[in-house]
Structures
1.
Amino acid sequence: MQKSADMRWQKVTVALPYIWLLLFFLAPFLIVFQISFSDPVIGLPPFTPTVDDNGNWLATLDNYRFLLTDKLYGLSYLKSLMTAATATVFCLLLGFPMAYAIARAGPGLRNLFLLLIILPFWISFLLRVYAWMGLMNTYGVINNLLLWAGLIDQPLQLMYTDLAVYIGLVYSYLPFMILPVYATLERLDNDLVDAAMDLGANPWRAFRDITWPLARPGVIAGCLLVFIPAIGEYVIPYLLGGPESLMIGRVLFDEFFVNRDWPLASAVAIVLLLLLVVPIMFLQRQSADDEVTQ
Amino acid sequence: MNRRQPVFLFSVLAFGYAFLYVPLISVMVYSFNDSRLATVWGGFSTRWYGELLHNEEVLEAAWLSLRIAAVSATLATVFGTMIALALVRFGRFRGRTLLSGMVTSPLVMPEVITGLSLLLLFVSLQKFLGWPAQRGFGTITIAHTTFALAYVTVIVQSRLKAMDISLEEAAMDLGCRPLRIVFDITLPLIAPAMIAGWLLAFTLSLDDLVIASFVSGPGGSTLPMLIFSKVKLGVTPDINALATLIIVLVTAGVALAWWFGRRGSTQS
C-alpha cells in the first residue's frame, strides 16, 4: 500500500510539469508550424485556416516560396549568421585570455574576479545595451573624449553601424564565453604545462599542444552559447544597428508587428529553427560528453 | 615561467573589466547631470531621481514587473525542482527523453520564436475556449515560467547529481516513507540550489523584453517594455537615473550574497 502511495506521488511529480510543458512549450510550436502554411487575411486572427469546415486541405507553401524568392530574407539569414560568427570570434579573443588569467589567479582573487564577470549579467540586459548608446552617440562620451584630446576634428559615426552591433553583442554575451572556458581551464592540471616546458617546449608549443586541446570542450561550449542566441538577437541590432543591419530576429519582429503578416513570420521562425538545429544538437552532444567524462 | 605572460594577461584582464564596467559607470555619472541634453554636462543634480519617483507610469510598470517576476520565479522553482527530481532520481520512465528535451530547449531557443509561438497559442486558446480573455499579467507570467523553469531544472539537477545519495538511502533503510524523505532530507539539502534558481528566474523575468512584448496586450506594459519605448528615441536622463538605481540595487544584493556566502564557507 505504501508502495502505491509512493508511485502516485512520483506520477504527480512527473505529470504536472509535463502537462505544463506540453501545453506551453510543445503545442505553441505545432501552432507556429501550422500557421506557417496559411495565407494572411485582414481580420482576427489574421490568417486563413489550413483545413476548412468540410475537412478540405487548404495548406499552402506560398510563405516558404516567398522566403526563397525574396532576396531580403536570404540576406537577413546570412547577415545574422555572419554577425553572430564575428561576435563569437571577438568574444573568444577577449574571453579566452580573461578566463585564463582568472584561472591562474590566487583562490581568493579568483572568486572576486568571477563575481565581477557575473555581476553585469544580473543587471538588466536592456539597460546595459542602453549604456552603450550614451557612450557611442555622435556627441557621446567616446566622441567627446576624442574631440577633447584633439585626436579627431569631427565626431565619428559609431552608433547605427555594424561595429556598434558587434560591440553590443560581445558586451552582452562575454560572460557566456568566459564561464565555460574558465571551468575547463580551472580543472587543467598545471603540472602538465610545467612538464612540457621542462622537456624543452617553448610556451607557445606548450599552449598549443597541452592547454588548448584540454580547454577545447569549454571553448566549443562557450562559442555555441554565444553564437546560438546571437543569431536571433532583436534588441541589440534594433538599438545599436543601422537600418541596413537587418538581422533575422528583427525581420521576424517587424513581419509580425509592423506588417501583421503572421503566417510569414511563422515561416521565418520555422526556417530559423531549422538553421539552429545543427548547432543546438552539437551543444547537447557536447554537454552529454561532459557528463560522461565527469 | 615566461615573464611576459603575466603582463599580457594582466592587460587583457584590465581591458576586459574596463570594457564591462566603463559603460555602467558612465550611465551612473550622467544620471546626476542637470542638463536635459544627455551629451552636455550641466552641473550636478539629483532632479531626475525626483522625477522618476513621481512618474506614475514607471512605478506602475515596475510594480507589474515585480509581481510577474515573483510569481513566475516561484512557479518555475516548483516545476523545475519536480522535473530535476524526476530526471535524476526516478530512473527510467516513459517519456523521459521528451521531458528532458522539452526542458532544455528553451535555454537555446531564440526569444522571438518563444514569444511568437506563445502568442499564437494564446490567440488560438482565446478563439476556442475564450481564455485568456485579455493578455497581460497572466500570459506574461505563464511565458516567463515556461522559459525560466529550464534554468531552475539545470541548477537543481546538477546539485542533485553532486549530492550524497547515501543519506536518502539510510533514511529509506530505516523505514522512512519516500515522500517524507523528499521533504525532510532531499529538499533541505538542495534548498541552496532552489534559492539560486529562484533568483535567476526572478532576474530573467525582470530582464525580459522580447517575449513580454509578444504575449502582452494593451495596457500591460512591463518595465523593460516601458524602458524600450523610451530608449528607442535616444538617451534620456530619467532612464539614466533608473539604470543607476538598478545597478546600485543589484550590486548591493550580489555583494551581500557574496559576503554571506564567504562567511558561510569559512565557518564550515
2.
Amino acid sequence: MSVAIDDVDPPVDGTSKPGRRKRVLSTGQATSRSLSSQPGRIIVYVLMFMWTVPTFGILVSSFRSEIDVKTSGWWKWFTDPSITLENYRRVLSSAPGDDNMAKFFMNSLIITIPSVILSVGIALLASYAFSWMKFKGRDWIFVAVVALLMVPLQMALVPLLQLFTGGAHIGTVTIFPDLSLTGTYIGVWIAHVAFGLPFCIFILKNFVSALPKELIEAARVDGAGHGTTFVKLVVPLSVPAIASLGIFQFMWIWNDYLIALIFAGRDKAPVTMKLAQVAGERGNAWHLLTAAGMVSMVLPIMVFFALQRYFVRGLLAGAVKG
Amino acid sequence: MAGVTLNSVNKVYDNGFHAIHDLDLEIQDEEFLVLVGPSGCGKSTALRMVAGLETITGGEMRIGDRVVNDVEPKDRDIAMVFQNYALYPHMSVYDNIGFALKLAKVPKAEIDERVRKAAEILELTSNLDRKPGQLSGGQRQRVAMGRAIVRQPSAFLMDEPLSNLDAKLRVQMRAEIAALQRQLAVTTLYVTHDQIEAMTMGDRVAVLKDGYLQQVDTPQNLYDRPVNLFVAAFIGSPSMNLCEAQLNGSELRFGSRSVALPDSLFAARPALRGFDGRKVIMGFRPEDLEDAAMSDDQDAAHRFSAQISLVEALGSELMVHFDLDAPPVDSGDPDAVEVIGEHATGVGRFSPRSGVRSGENVEIALDVANMHFFDPDSRLAVWG
C-alpha cells in the first residue's frame, strides 16, 4: 500500500507546538492528494474541457443565425461574435407551427413523471418483499427478475405491441383484453415501467436488504407489521436510493426515443421524437436542432440538481453501532 | 409481571444445524437471569426464541401462564434491547421511545407521560428532541433501554447491550442496569459473553456451551461448586489453573511436584477416594495461591515450587505466571487461548507486597481446601 507523507499546519488552538508536522496518508487520501497536485489538476482540467466542448459548441450554435451555422463552424463565433435569439424564438413560440416545442415538452413530462413514480414505487414495494418478507420461492423469483435485465428491449417490442393492439388469447380464452393501448399514455407508461422494473428492483433490493436487520426486528418487537415497517422505517431510510434511482429513471425515460416512437404515436410524441423530426425530416434545419437540444436539456439538469440534495450520506448514523 | 419458562426447547435450523438442545430453564418473576457462554453457544438464539424472532423447533415456551410458541413478538408482552441499539435513525429520541406506544394506539397524553417518565429515569430529558446520530454511545444505549422500559412489559430481553461500550462506561452502565432492574422489578433475561457481567449482575446465571445448558445457579455457587470442567474454567478471571495429576493415597502428584491433601478435603469430596491410584484433573484458582513467604499457611505439604515466567503488577495485586511440568488440560472453551506445548502453565494472584521476580524459582502456597477435581473422562466435578 502506498503512503504519502504530508506537511500539515498545526491546529490553531494554542495547545500544540508551533511549526509544521508530518502526517502519513492512506492510499485513498494519497490518490486524492495527487489528483489535486499541479500535474493531476491539469489532467483533470483537460478531461473536463474535452467532455464539455461538444455541448458548449451546441450552446454557441444555438445563438448563431441560420446562415452562420450552415456556413461556418461554431468556433468561428469567437472571431465573429453575433447573438441571435431567432432559433429559440422559433422553437419556443406558441404559434401552432411545427417548430413549437411546448407541446412536446408537455408530452415528455406526462410520459416521464408517472413512469418514474410508478417504476420506483413498485420497485420499492418489491424490494421490501424480497428483502424482509418470507415466502416460498422468494429467492428464485428474485433471480428471475434480475435475469430479465438481460432481455434486450427490442425483443419485447413486437410482442408488446401485439398485446396492446389485439390483447392475448389462447383459443377462445382471453388472458389480456384488447385495450387498444397504442398511441395512449397508458401504453407508454406500461412499457416504460415494465422495461425499467428489473433494474429498479435490483438496485433497490440491494439497498433495502442492507438496512440493519436489528432495525426491522426492533420494529417487529415494537408491534409494527409489514405495512408500518415499510412506510415508517424503510421508505424514510431509503430516500438516498430513491433519489438516485429517480434521477436515473428520469434521465432514461426522458431521453428515450424507441419506446415513444413505437407506442406513443404522433400526437403524444415527446421531445425526443420532436428532435429527431427536426433533424431528420427537415434535414437541413440544424440551427433549430441546437436550440431544441438545449431546451430539452434544461429540465433533466434542473431535476438532477434538485434531487442531488437528497444524497444524504450518514443518514443511518447513530442507528446502529459501527 | 410474569416468569418465563422454557421446557425442553430445541432449535434446529433449516440446514440441519442443531443449535439448542433440550433447554430447560425457569426464570422466576422479577428475577434477573443471565445467559452466559462462549461465542456460538446458542445464548442469543435462546433469547431470540423467547422474543419470538426465531421459531421454536421443539418444546414449550411460556411467558407467565401462556404458551407463546406461536405468538408474534408484539403480542408476547416483552421488550428487547439489542446489542447494536437498533434505534430508528430518522426519528427523535422522543419518537424512538414512544414508537411502540404509538403503534399500540395509546392516547397521546399517556404516551407523553410515559415517555417523559422513562426519560427522567434514564437522564435523557434534555436529549428528547435530538436524533440518535447526535448522541454518544452511552446515551444511545439509554435510549434503547428507554424504548424497552416505556412499554412496561412482562419481561426485558437484553442481547449483550454493553458489549459495544468502552470499558469504563461498561462498568458504570452495568451498575445502572442492575439498579434499574431492581427498581422496576421486571423479569429480565440478559445475554452476555462476559462472565464478569454475568457474575456481577445476575441473581442467577445460566452457563451454555454448544447449545447445552451446563449449569444454572447463583454466581457464588457457580464459582464455588462448578459442575464440570468447562464451567470451572469459564467462571473466574483469570481462569482456574488446570492440569493432569495422579492421586496416591493423600498425595497428589502433578508433574514432578506434589502436595498432600488433608482428610477434611476428602471428607468434603467423598467420591475423590474412588480416584486413588488413578489420574485425575486438578484445578486451583489463581486467588487460592500465594507467595509462600507471605502465606499464613506454613505447612510445607501445601506448597510447591515453580519457575516464574512473568509478573504483572496491577497495583492491588501481582499476577504471577509460572510453569508446571504437568500435562495441560483443555477446558473446552472455544474462546480461551489455545493450549499448546506439553506443560501446563498457571497464574497466581499474589499480594502486592510479595517480592517475587520474573525468572526466579519460588515456593508457592496453595489453599488445598479450595481445590477442584474433575473426572478425566466425563469431565464432571468430583464431589459426593
3.
Amino acid sequence: MSAASRVRVRLPAPLRVLASVPSEVTVVVPGPVTQRAVLDAIEEAHPCLRGTIRDQASGRRRAFIRFFVHESDLSDLGPDEPLPRNVADGVEPFVVIGAMAGG
Amino acid sequence: MSRVRLMVGTRKGGFLLTSDGRRGAWEVEGPLFPGWEIYHMDASPADPDRMYASQTSGWFGQVVQRSDDGGKTWSAIGNDFAYEGGAGTHKWYDGSDKPWEFTRIWHIEPSPDDPDVVYAGAQDAALYRSQDGGASWEELTGLRRHPTGPTWQPGAGGLCLHTILLSPCDPSRMIVAISAAGAFRSDDAGTSWQPINKGLLSGGVLPDPDAEVGHCVHKIAMHRSHPDVLFMQKHWDVMRSDDGGGSWHEISGDLPTDFGFAISVNSNEPETIYVVPIKSDSEHYPPEGKLRVYRSKTGGGEWEPLTKGLPQQHCYVDVLRDAMAVDTLDPCGVYFGTTGGQVYASPDGGDTWYPAARDLPAVLSVEAQTLP
C-alpha cells in the first residue's frame, strides 16, 4: 500500500486566478501518484477547477492543456501510469500548461 | 432615483457599467474574470443582486460564475453540462454526422420569479436548467431529442442555442432559437418541443427554402406585455410572428440590408423595435461604414435610421446577437456593444446616442438591469 504523497502542482495564471491560489499548490495524493490521482486531488481541493484541465464527462485532458515535469512533456502519458518519482517525492512540480497561443 | 446597470460580456472579461436614472454618465467596473471570454451575463428579475456569468476559454473550458451581492463578489458554481442519455449526432458543416460536443454556454436566462432557477443555452445546442442557483444543471432533453435533432447543422458561429424566452404569462411556455436549426417552442415547461419556423425562407442556404428546421435564426425578441408577438433577426430577413411563432412574416421593409444579429423591443412601446443592419453574411460591418440603428415604431415594415451620436464614416464594427438591450425606464434606454469595444447608450429611445464606454475588448453581450 502506497503512503500518501505531497505533490507540488503549478497552475497556469488563469486557473490560479480562478482558484484564488498562488502559482504553486501542494496536494495530498493518497495512493500511487498518477496524472489521474493528481488531478483528482487538485479538483477535490479546488472544485472550481473541475472541467478546466480535463473534460468532466470523459476525463480526457483538454486539447490545449499540457503536463510538464522537469523539461519533459508527459501529456500523453496514460492517466494511470505512475509519474516520475521526483514528482511523488515533491522534488519536482507537476506543471499544468495552457498551450502557447497569441501570435 | 432609479439606476441602470449594464452587464457587458467581452472577449477578455466582463464589465459592469452603472448610471443613475438620467443615464448621462457611467461608472465602469472591470474587467471581471480578466482574459476569459464572457459570453453572457444576466441578473435575476426576482433578486437584482443575483447575477450569473458564462465564463469560457478555448484552453480551460466552461466556468459559470454567480454573484449574490450585485457583482461585488463572485463564486464559481456548477459547470457540469452533460448531454443526458448519450450524445447522439448532429450534422457537421460537410453533411457528415458529428457527435454532440459541449463547447460553451452562450446565453443565461434567469427565471423571472425565482432567483435559484436559471436556464442556459449551450453549444452544441442544448438547453439546461438549474433549480439550485447554478450548483447543478440538468438537460431538458426533449429539445435535442426532437426527431429533427440529428439533422441540425451549425451556423458559422457553431451549433449554438443563443435565445431563451420565458413567457411572462404562461410559465409552461418557452421559446428558444438555435443557429442554424431555427426556433422551437415548448408549452409544457421544456419537456417537449416543436419547431416554429413556418414562414421563414432561407433560399440559397437550404435546399428546401421553407424547411421545417435549418434556418439560421440570429435572435428573437419579445415584449413582456405581448408574449405572442415575436420579432426575429434571421441570417437574412427581419421577421414577425403574432401567434407565438406559429407563423412568421417578413417585416424587413425599407431597411438598407436585412442581415444582422441583434434585435430588441422598446420596453414601453411594444410595437417599437430596433435592429442594427449589417452589410452581409460575409461583410460583418454596417453598410457604407455608417453605424446606424434602425427603429420601427410600427412593429416593422417602416424603419428610420438613428444616427445622432453614432459614427457615420469609416465604421466597420459588428454588433453581435446578444449585444443589444433595453432598460425599463421611461423614456426607454437602449444600449448596444460593438466588436470594436464601444458600448453605445441612448437614454431617449434611440433618438440620440453616446459611448458609455469606448475602448473595451470586443463586446459579445450587453444586458440592462433597471435598479431601484
4.
Amino acid sequence: MAEPRVRDILIVGGTIAGWLTAAILARSLPRELYHIRLLDAATPVVELETLGGGLATLPALRTAHALLGLPEAELGRSAGAGFSLGADYAGWPRPGGRYFRPFGGTGAALDGVAFHNLWQRMRRASAAGELEDYALGAVAARLGRFAPPSSDRASVLSTLDYGYHLDGEAYRQLLRAAALQHGVLRIEGEPGEVRLRGTDGWIEAVAAAGGGEPLVADFFIDCTGAKACLLGEALSVPFEDWTHWLPCDRAVAVRESGEVPFPFLRVEAQGAGWQWRMPLREGAARLRVFASAHEQADGAVAFASGRRARFWERNCVAIGAAASLLDPLEPASLQAVQRGISQFLLLMPFKDDAAGEAEEYNRIMTETVERMRDLVILHYKANRREEPFWRACREMQVPDILAYKIRLFEAKAKILALDEEMFRDEDWAAVYLGQGVQPRAYDVLADAPDKALVRDQLAGMRKAINAAAEATPPYAAFLQGQPA
Amino acid sequence: MSDVRIRSIVIVGGGTAGWMTAAALAKALAPNEAEIVLIESDEIGRVGVGEATIPPITTFNQLLGVDENEFVRETKGSIKLAIEFVNWTRLGHRYLHPFGQFGYDIEAVKFHQFWRKLDLMGQAAPIEDYCFSAVAAKLGRFDWPSPDPRSVLSQLKYAYHFDAALYARFLRTYAEKRGVKRVEGKIVQVHQHGETGFVEAVELEGGRRVEGEFFVDCSGFRGLLIAQTLGAGFEDWSHWLPNDRAVATQCESAGPEITPFTRATAHKAGWQWRIPLQHRIGTGYVFSSSHISDDEATATLLANLDGPPVHDPWILKFKGGRREKFWSKNVLAVGLAGGFMEPLESTSIHLIQAGITRLLALFPDRRFSRVEADEYNRLMTSQYERIRDFIVLHYKATERDDSPYWDYVREMAIPETLRTKIELFRARGRLFRYEDELFADANWIAVMIGQNIVPESYDPLADAVDIRAVKESADRMRDLFRRAAESLPPHRAFLDHIRTAKASAP
C-alpha cells in the first residue's frame, strides 16, 4: 500500500460545471485526505446554457442538491428557481405541430409490456387519445398547474417529476458558496501557463495569469468551458466536431420581463433552428439557436457541438463544455457534468498511474455523451418542415447507431437502450412519436392482455390523471406559496 | 395490422429448449394468436442428466406462473445456492461462487473494496463469509426466502438442480394444456420457398408435411434448420474453450445429505460436474479429447463417484462456439442449435431462456423486417460473448502447471474484453458491466478472488470511511449471516417437507 495518493486536486475554471464538481468532490472526499482548490477568474466565462440568464435542468440535478444539502427554498430565494414539468415542442415536427415531453412518468406498464405499446394497440383499435394524455406532468402543464411529486407510490401524483429553471449566474454563486462551505479553497485568477513535466508530459502546475506562484497539484480538472485550456490547449487533445449532425452553431439570448410564468420549457422550431422560452420567478429567458449557414444575426455567440477525443488524459480530466458541448435543445448539460463527476469518483486515481482508470473513464463517458447526442439529433432528423435548413436535416446521414435505433422503432416500436444511456425509454418514445416516427408494428406481448381490460385500464388512468391535474394548484398560486 | 400476424409457429425438436419455448409462447402470446406445433421424435434418444441453473430461472417460472413446490417435486429437483470449485486455482484449493451479494456498499463504495483493505491489514475473513447464500450453502441449509425485505432471510438467492428430462416432461404437460400440439415424427426433408429460401414446411417420415410461418429450431447441435438448411456458419471458440467431450453418468448418493450447491472439480484435462438431485447424483467429466482419451476420462469419472453408478457412462461430443446468426429468415435457433458453452457456470438453460425472452421482445410478423433479426442476433451474440468471457476466466486464472492441458489454458491468449476486465480488477478491484451482461459484479468478484486475482490495492475512496467501524459492522454481518443460516432447516429436511406439502406459492 505504499502507492502515492492523489492529495491535491486543482479545478481550473469557475464555471457552473467547475463549482458543481468542486462542491461534490469536497462533499464526497474526506477533508483530511484531499485538498481541493479552484482557480476562478474574476469575470465569469460565457457559457452557452446560461446565455440570457436562464439555465434549464433535468430532475436528476436534485440528487446532487440533496448530496450537497442545498435546499430548494434556497434555490428559489437566491437563484430565482422556477419549476418545470417538461418541455413543450411547438412547430415540431411541422409548422402547427406540437407535443409535450414530461419529466415524469407516462402511463404504467402492464405485465411487463411498456406502456407506449399498450397505447399503440388501443390507438389502432379505437380512440385512445395522445400518448401525453397519460402523463400527469403533461396534462398539468397544459392546464398551467404544478405540484411536487407525492412520495405515496399509490398516488398518481407520485408519477410527477420536475426540473428547474434557474438564474444561471445566481446558481453559479450558490454552488460556489456550497463548495466553499465544504472546504474548497478558491483562488482568484485567469488560468495562465500550464507547466508540463518533461519526462512524460503530465501537468505539474497551472499558473494564474498575471502573477503568483504556479499552482502545483497531483491532479487537474479542466472546467474552463469550450476553450478547454488544459485538455485542449495544453495537452493537445483534439476536438471532434459534430456540426454535420447538429448544424446549429449560433445562439442569441434575451432576458424578458413581465411574462406570466408557466411550469415548463417552451421550445419553438423556427426557420433555421429553434428558440427556448424559459420562465423564471421574474420574467423569462429566451435563447434562440440557429445555423449560421442558413441565417445571420448580429451579436450571436458562436459555438460548435462536439467532444474532445478523450476526456481524461494523463493527470487531467475535463468536465462540462471543456469535455463535450451539445446543442442545448435538451436541457441535459448538467446531467453530463454530474455523470462525469460520479464516474471520476468511481475511478478515483492514484498518483502517477492512471492509465487503466483513464481508459475506462473515456470509454464510459464517450458512450454517455454520444447516446445523449443521438436523442438531440433525432429531433432534427425526424422533421416534416419545408425550410431549406430542415430539409437538409431530414436528408442528413445520422450516426449508425441512431439509424439502427430508428429502424428498430419503425419496425417494432422497440426502444433500444444501450450502455450508458441517460435518457429514459419514455424520453425516446415521446420524441419518436412526437417527431412523427411511426412504428409499423408494436410489441406482440401487448396483445396478450384482454382488450376490455386494457381499455378499462387506459380509461381509468386518464380519468385519474385528469382529476389529479384539476386538483393541483395553478402554477402562480403554487409559487406564491413557496418561500421567496 | 391483423393480416400480417404470424398464424403458425413450428418448433422443431422437444427437449428442454423445445418445451421451454413452447411453454413460454403458449403463455405469453394472446390466446388464439397463433397455432403452435412441436415436432419431436421418441427415437432420438434423450437421457435425463442432472441440470443446474442460475437464479433467473425463477423469473421464467414466474412468467409461466409455475408453483415452485410443485416444480421441485415434479423434476426431483433440489436447491442450488452456489458452485463449489475444487482444484481450479491450484490442486487442493477450493472456493465458492455463491449467488447474491457480498456485504453491503458503504458510502457508494463497494463492499469488496473494504474487504480488500481489511485483508491487506490481515483482518478479513474469507470473502465467502460475507455472502448469505455462501454461508447457508456451507451449512447445507435452505428455506424459501422471507418476503419481508427487512429480514436477512429475504436475501437468500437461489436456483435449482433438476432432472432435465423430467423438466421437459413437466413443461410438455404445461404447454399441451395451453393448446400446443405435439407431433410425433422424424423430419426427413425441409421445404423452402424457391426464391426467398424461407422455410415453408418440414416433411416427416411417412410423407406428412407440417407447414408453418415461423420456425424455431430446437434440434440440438446439428441445427437442422438454421445450419443444415439455411447454412448459418459457426464461430468456433475451441481455442479458448478446448473441451470438446463429456462422459456422463448418474450415481447413487453416499449418504442422506444433499448439498445445496453444484460442485465443479478440476481434473487433469477438464473438470467434473456433480449435481445432487433428490434421488441420485448427476455427474460427468468434461474434457479435451486432444489431451486425454475417452477411456481415460471414463476411468477418472468412475473413480470419482459418490456411490455406485446407475447407468453405464456415455460420451457426448460438442464444440464450444456460437452460430454466426441465431435468427435467419423465418428460422430462429434456440438452445444447442444456436451455440454451445460448457456447463461450468450452468448457463445452458439460461441461454435458452434468454433466447426466448428476446424472441418475445422482438416477435416478428409475416413481413419479417430485417431489423428484428439483426437486433436479436446482436443481443444474443453479446449474451454468448459475455458468458464466454466469464467461463474463460476460470481457465485463464489458474496456477496449475501439472499437465499440458492446464499449461495451455494458463498461457492462452484471451479475448480483449476479458483482458480489460481482469486488468481493471487486478489493479484496484474495479469492475464494470456491459449492456445486458448476465453475470454481475458479485459473480466476477467471487471467481476473480476465488482464483487468486486479488486486487493489488483498493479504491482510494475506501479510505474515506473509518476502517474500524467497517470492521465492526463486517464482523456483525458475518455473525448475523451465520446465525440466520443456522436457523434454516437442513436442505434434505426442506426437500422432504415440500415433497409432502400441498402445492402452494412459497
